[in-house]
Amino acid sequence: MANLHVALVSRTYYYVPYWAAQRQRFFADEGLEVTGEILDSTGKVNLGLKDGSYQIGIGTPEGVVADVENGPGDLVIVAGNADKLTHVLIALPRYQRIEDLRGARIGVASLNEGTAFVVQEMLRPHGLSHPHDYDLVNAGGVPSRWRKLREGGIDAGLQSIPISYAAEDAGFPNLGDSTDYVPDYQFTTVNVHRQWAEQHQAELTAALRALRRGTEWMYDNREAAIDVIVEELDVGRAHATRGWEHYVSKCVLPRDMRVSEPGMRAVLGIMSRAGTLRDQDPMDPDRYVDRSFLGDL
């Protein structure tokens, strides 16, 4: 069996297909022995791909884009994961409107990827700009942000479904839904080191095939998928059930794992507005995505 190490960012719904592929032995069916590790950081996922600690990272596209544009261009996106946002802005009870967040500390997973950009898109229409009006704090993935919010370490943070349901039921106000501000967004992707992928095409294709089976299994096995959500995300069954219903009804994780072109264009546009892409950088998703490994799975 080929051994693969997979880097994950946090315990969030986006990894249900991975956990399903493990539990249902879809990886083993492909002749793969796969181990995964939660790093609680998008940056660590990218670094792990670069230094060879991990062969596959289910992370965010922004790190790949930055690597291609700023060099050395080692990383490449080979498949999609979540092509819509599922986050709401959850705050301490003293904040009732986004406008109240002036001077607040807002937790994000990384200062230059994903949630940091989405927060800025949400607050800008309300007259708040970073860094003048609020601070962004590197607070880890959703579970870490939820813990730090409860402890008072941050004033607000994006929480994804279904943890956002638990936060609202605990009395923390929902200040806004990210999809009202960013309707299309390729939030998570399957990323690899380009050289490794070229040298291990069979293993990569097999892993993608197993992940696709895991995605389809999630859609087709409601109660068993909810069991996975309860166990892996440590949420109650009622919240897990609402979560499954949301992700399935909205097709947040496409069955075919294709990368969304509108979603990637939204990523590039937001990165440009945030100042992390030069104006002359072309807005072409194909600079960062290699669809050949997903092929006709």
CATH architecture of the largest domain: 3-Layer(aba) Sandwich
CATH top level class name of the largest domain: Alpha Beta
What is the C-alpha radius of gyration, as a whole number of Å?
A: 18 Å
State the secondary-structure class: alpha/beta
- CATH superfamily membership of the largest domain, which one? Periplasmic binding protein-like II
The succession of helices and strands, N to C, reads EHHEHEHEEEHEHEHEEHHHHH
- Report strand order across the widest sheet: 2-1-3-10-4
Note poorly predicted spans: none
N- to C-terminal separation? 21 Å
Strand content: 15-25%
Helix content: 40-55%
CATH topology call of the largest domain: D-Maltodextrin-Binding Protein, domain 2
* Average of per-residue pLDDT values: 95
How many structurally independent domains? 2
Most strands sheet: 5 strands, mixed
Number of strands: 10
**Overall 3D geometry?**
globular
In DSSP terms, counting alpha (H) and pi (I) runs of 4 or more, how many helices?
Answer: 12
Give a brief outline of the structure.
This protein is an alpha/beta fold. The protein has 12 helices and 10 strands.
Which labels suit this protein?
alpha/beta; D-Maltodextrin-Binding Protein, domain 2; 2 domains; five-stranded mixed beta sheet; 41% helix
Describe this structure in words.
- The chain has 297 residues and is of the alpha/beta class.
- The chain folds into two domains: 2-83 and 185-287, D-Maltodextrin-Binding Protein, domain 2, CATH 3.40.190; 87-180, 3-Layer(aba) Sandwich (D-Maltodextrin-Binding Protein, domain 2), CATH 3.40.190.
- It is 41% helix and 17% strand.
- It contains twelve helices and ten strands.
- The chain has helices spanning 16-23, 26-29, 42-51, 62-70, 115-123, 142-151, 163-169, 194-199, 201-220, 222-233, 237-249, 261-273; strands spanning 2-8, 32-38, 56-59, 75-80, 87-91, 105-108, 135-138, 156-160, 174-177, 189-193.
- The strands form two sheets. It has a five-stranded mixed β-sheet with strand order 2-1-3-10-4, with helices on both faces.
- Strand 6 (105-108), helix 5 and strand 7 (135-138) form a beta-alpha-beta unit.
- Helix 1 crosses helix 9 (201-220) and helix 10 (222-233) packs across helix 11 (237-249).
- The protein starts with a strand and ends in a 24-residue tail after the last helix.
- The mean pLDDT is 95.
